[in-house]
Structure formats: structure tokens, C-alpha cells
């Protein structure tokens, strides 16, 4: 008889929508967030391709004219054998005031692309894959390089 009363109370609670606490804690599924992946994503818009020494100088002085006038040979400063060691090229995002090393690969950008576009700008998206000397290293997924205009490019335009 007691079982019959308890069963009818439970069914009535189910119909009414009242939860009956049975002493068992309820478990809720937690949705996984992709915050770590979003933190590693980087997007560049008109970021300057320059040498690490020029990027550090621009960051310290706050004057970005250094980036536009940085000669390509600065990318090889401190490198003893330029045939076996890569140049010290970074991408300086002027809007964020940060600079990043780029990881060249056969699926992405090559060193020759970065050297050809030296002093120009790059638009693209990528993922931070590590760190080198305290500077984030980015592997680009999509990119477009706009090379620096050659001297005399605007000659005759005016």
C-alpha cells in the first residue's frame, strides 16, 4: 500500500512538473568552448614585412617611419651564413603594435615571398604555433602580399 501511494505521488509530481529530489545530484553537460583556438588565431591587415631590428626600433620609439625605410640587408644582420640560416623577417601589425615571426612552409608562404614583399604589406590570417625569442611564430593559412612600390612609381601621375 505504501508503494502504491509513493508511486502515485511520483506520477502526480511528474504530471505537474515538480521535481522530486531523490538525493542524487543532477549532472549537466558542459559545452566545450574554443577559447584556446580563438586565442591562437591572428589576422593581419596591411601589416608591414620588415626586419626584426627595425620592428624593435619602431616599437621602442613609437615612430613607424622606421618600418618604411628599413633596408632589406637588415634582415640578415647577425647571421653568419646567409645560405644556411633564414633571414630575421617579422610582420609588424601597426594597428595592434605587435610583431610576429612567420613560419614559411610549402603549404603557406615561402622565404622568397617574404623577401620579395619586404617593406610592403601583408594581409592574411594564421595561427600562432609557437614562440621564438619571446616573439610569437605564426603559420599563415591565407595571405596576400603587396610589395613596396618601386622608386619613381608615381612619376608622371601628377
What is the element layout, followed by pairings?
Blueprint lengths: L1 H15 L18 H6 E11 H10 L3 H4 L20 E5 L4 E5 L8 H6 L4 E12 L2 E12 L12
Parallel strand pairs: 3-5
Antiparallel strand pairs: 1-2, 1-4, 2-3, 4-5
Low-confidence stretches: 27-34
Mean pLDDT: 80
- State the oligomer: single chain
Radius of gyration: 29 Å
Strand order of the largest sheet: 1-2-3-5-4
SS class: alpha+beta
Strand content: 25-35%
Task: Label the overall shape.
Answer: elongated
The helical percent reads: 25-40%
Spell the H/E element sequence: HHEHHEEHEE
Q: Give the total of beta strands.
A: 5
**Biggest pleated-sheet summary:** 5 strands, mixed, barrel
| Euclidean distance between termini CA atoms | 102 Å
Discrete helix count:
5
Can you walk me through this structure?
This protein is α+β, with helices and mostly antiparallel strands. It has a domain at 38-146. 26% of the residues lie in helices and 28% in strands. The protein contains five helices and five strands; from the N terminus they run ααβααββαββ. Strands 1-2-3-5-4 form a five-stranded mixed barrel. A hairpin with a 2-residue loop joins β4 and β5 (135-146).
In short:
This protein has helices at 2-16, 35-40, 52-61, 65-68, 111-116; strands at 41-51, 89-93, 98-102, 121-132, 135-146. With 158 residues, the chain is of the alpha+beta class. The chain has a domain at 38-146.
Amino acid at each position: 500500500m505504501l508503494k502504491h501511494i509513493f508511486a502515485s505521488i511520483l506520477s502526480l509530481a511528474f504530471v505537474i512538473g515538480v521535481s522530486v529530489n531523490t538525493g542524487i545530484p543532477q549532472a549537466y553537460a558542459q559545452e566545450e568552448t574554443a577559447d584556446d583556438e580563438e586565442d591562437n588565431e591572428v589576422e593581419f591587415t596591411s601589416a608591414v614585412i620588415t626586419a626584426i631590428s627595425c620592428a624593435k626600433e619602431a616599437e621602442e620609439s613609437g615612430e613607424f617611419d622606421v618600418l618604411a625605410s628599413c633596408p632589406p640587408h637588415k634582415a640578415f644582420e647577425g647571421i653568419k651564413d646567409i645560405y644556411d640560416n633564414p633571414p630575421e623577417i617579422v610582420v609588424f601589425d601597426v594597428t595592434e603594435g605587435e610583431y610576429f615571426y612567420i613560419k614559411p612552409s610549402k603549404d603557406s608562404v615561402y622565404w622568397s615571398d617574404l623577401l620579395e614583399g619586404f617593406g610592403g604589406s601583408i594581409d592574411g590570417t594564421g595561427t600562432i604555433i609557437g614562440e621564438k625569442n619571446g616573439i610569437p611564430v605564426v603559420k599563415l593559412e591565407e595571405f596576400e602580399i603587396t610589395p613596396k612600390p618601386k622608386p619613381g612609381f608615381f612619376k608622371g601621375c601628377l
